[in-house]
Structure formats: C-alpha cells, structure tokens
Amino acid sequence: MSPKLNGTVIVTYRCNARCNMCNRYKAPSRPEEEISLETIRKLPPMYFTNITGGEPFIRTDLKEIVRELYKKSDRIVISTNGFFTDRIVDLCREFPNVGIRISIEGLEQTNNEIRGLEDGFNRGYTTLKNLREMGMKDVGFGMTVQDRNAPDLVPLYQISNEMGMEFATASLHNSFYFVESKNIIHDRPMVAQNFENLVNKLLKSNSPKKWMRAYFNHGLINYIYGQKRLLPCDMSFDTFFIDPYGDVMPCNGTKDKEVMGNLNDQTWDELWNSPEAEAVRKKVRCCDRNCWMIGSVSPAMHKYIWVPGIWVVWHKFKALIMKKPYSMYENKIVRDYRDGKVTKAELDRCSTCNLCGVTNDGLSDASREQLKHKTGEEIVDADIAAQIDVSV
Questions:
Q1: Phi-psi region at 101: left, alpha or beta (left = phi > 0; alpha = psi -120 to 50)
Q2: Which 3-state string (H, E, C) describes 231-298?
Q3: Interatomic CA distance for residues 9 and 78, integer angstroms
Q4: Distance between CA atoms of 128 and 132, rounded to whole angstroms?
C-alpha cells in the first residue's frame, strides 16, 4: 500500500477579498465547474489536507466537502479570510477537530488596506474569538509579509500568542495561482529585521512547535533574498494540489499551471502513475523558483527533520546564554548585501518578480469567457448577494 500523501484542495477560485498581493479575485472559477463531491471521493488517503481557495466558505456545500475529506484525511485545515463568520461557526460545530487559519495581514488599519475587505480585521478577529470560546483548539492567524505590514509582524504574533492561537507566516510569491508576477519585497533588511525579531520570540517560547516555526521564518529571510531553498522540494512526489477543475498539480508556486492529470476523468492511480505526472516530476526536480511556502516546506521539514532539528538545538543552546539567539546575519547573503558585495538590483534579479511578465491565471476556457462581459469582482459580488438572498 502506498504511503499517505499531503494534499491541498482548492475548492474555488471565487474570492470576496481584494488583496494587493493576489489578483485571484479578478479571475474566479464558475461554480458549475468547481470540484464535485464525486471527484473528491476519488482522492487518495492523506495524512494532512488543506482546503483553500479563493475563499472556501463561498461554497455553500463546504460542510459536505469536509465530511467526504474526513473519510480520507487524518487532519484538515481550512484557510479563509474569516468573512463568513456564521458559516465558519456552523461548520466548526459539526467538525470541532478541523483547523481554521484566518488570513490577517497586520493590525486593523494595515490589514484592511491590504485585504480590501470592509471591516475585515474585526470580522476575522471576532470569528477567531468565537471559535476559541466554542473550545476550538486548532485555530489561528495566517499572515503574508510584505513591506507594508512587516512592522506588524511581532505585534500580531503577540495577539495570537495571548489568545493561545497558531501563527502562520508567508512572504510575497508570484505564480499563476496568485495571478501575479510583480510581487517583490523592496526593503529586504527592514523586512528581515522583523522576521529576526519574530524568530527570537519563537525561540524563547516553551513550545517545540514554535521552535520549528522559528526555522521556517529563518527560511523566509533566505527566500526574500532570492537564495536557494534550505530544504529539497518534493512537491508532486509526496504532496499535491488539486484545483477547482479537477486538475492535479505539483504545487501553487509555478509560473504556469503544471498538470499531472485530471481527477474528473481518471482514477487516482491512473493519474498519479501517468507519463504526464512523471514529466511534471522531472520539471519539479529542475525547478528554480525556490519557493518557501508552508505547503512545500512542512512536508520537507518532516522528511529531513535532522536539518531543522540541528538548527533548533543550536539556537536553543544559544538562547540559554544570549538575549537574542538568532541573527539574520547568519545568512551569508544578508551579510553580503550589508557589506556591499551584492547590489539590490542583483537580488531583485534572483526573485521571481517579472514586471513585464504575462501572468497565466489557470482558468478554464469557460471561466475565462465570463470575464469578457463582467469583471471578476462583479461576478463574485452578484454570486454572494444571490446566496444571501436565498438564505434570508
């Protein structure tokens, strides 16, 4: 029997947020085409499943999807913007073991500017508080760090810590999934300094999980300086993504959509062992994007546990004798930039940012066709208005 996989199910590309680092809201999927329960039943056994979007709670049948995925998966975490509080609370009553990560991009003003959701911070924060009061254990914040919100990194961590919540971080990325090619960190030393402050807070905690998170954030500094990944990428070997159209992909970090097969039309074994899947795996082995997202790094940290393990032991030892056990200057590239050995222009060239790039949106022809007549925002706003109308 083959080992369990790590899977991410993108249930929709519809989104009601207007984030400045992601243009997915401009390129939604058509509800009629979105992954069905029938296709979800064909997924393989998984030790971990992330449900994401778009905004997953736009789907009114999300409870049915979670019910099916629990037959396949040991653990499920849903990534959401927290807007649909009632739907989230309702789902969590039925599934108290599900994980919820609400994207909050900083303190109130910063978050609302970045995410473009009216009163988004208070909605997200209130949803999290409601879930904690219900006794939900696996809840927390997710933050994508950029120049605009880096100073809020530690304050937001402290809020999550006081509430006894998880705190997940990411940095700007470019890919077809985000419908973006122009994301870039401008002031790397400033952003790295805020990551350094967070790493030291995490190392000073009593939680081994937070010590591992410290290593992950150390890797984010390495990533924003455009360097080679600290751990191998095994996406498409033991980890996969499936999009709203049933296309199975290695990950969500590629420039263009890479397809291993389509689960609507194939069995899982046919798809996973197909020549198309092997061709994608060859591409992954030569991939130079050096992504550092939790979806690819978490499985790698488990698989190559001695690498973060040694790093954590060394830094915990330093924490016994030093106030600040971690410095961003442990990264040679950070020292080289400080010392003028590399220029900002050279670092910019190492990033995946392409100001002239044409971004693939990963949509089906039918989903793209609807955008000829209306914007993605108009389509999704009408969609949500109709849902609310029906439920009233």
A1: beta
A2: CCCCECCCEEEECCCCEEECCCCCCCCCCCEECCCCCHHHHHCCHHHHHHHHHHHCCCCCCCCHHHHH
A3: 10
A4: 6
The token duo for 309 is: 């393990």
d(CA 152, CA 361): 30
C-alpha to C-alpha distance for 371 and 338, rounded to whole angstroms: 46
For residue 46, list its beta bridge partners: 5, 73
Phi-psi region of 58 (alpha: psi -120 to 50; beta: other; left: phi over 0): alpha
For residue 351 the two structure tokens come to 């990033």
Q: What is the DSSP letter of 44?
A: P
* 252 within 8 A of 177, measured Cβ to Cβ: yes
What one-character-per-residue DSSP string does 185-227 give? -S-HHHHHHHHHHHHHHHHHSS-HHHHHHHHHHHHHHHHHTTP
| 392 residues of the chain, pLDDT tens digit each | 568 999 999 999 999 999 999 999 999 999 999 999 999 999 999 999 999 999 999 999 999 999 999 999 999 999 999 999 999 999 999 999 999 999 999 999 999 999 988 889 999 999 999 999 999 999 999 999 999 999 999 999 999 999 999 999 999 999 999 999 999 999 999 999 999 999 999 999 999 999 999 999 999 999 999 999 999 999 999 999 999 999 999 999 999 999 999 999 999 999 999 999 999 999 999 999 999 999 999 999 999 999 999 999 999 999 999 999 999 999 999 999 999 999 999 999 999 999 887 888 999 999 999 999 999 999 999 999 998 877 65
Count the neighbouring beta carbons within 10 Å of the beta carbon of residue 323: 7
Task: Please identify which residue in the block is written with the tokens 């910063």.
Answer: 110
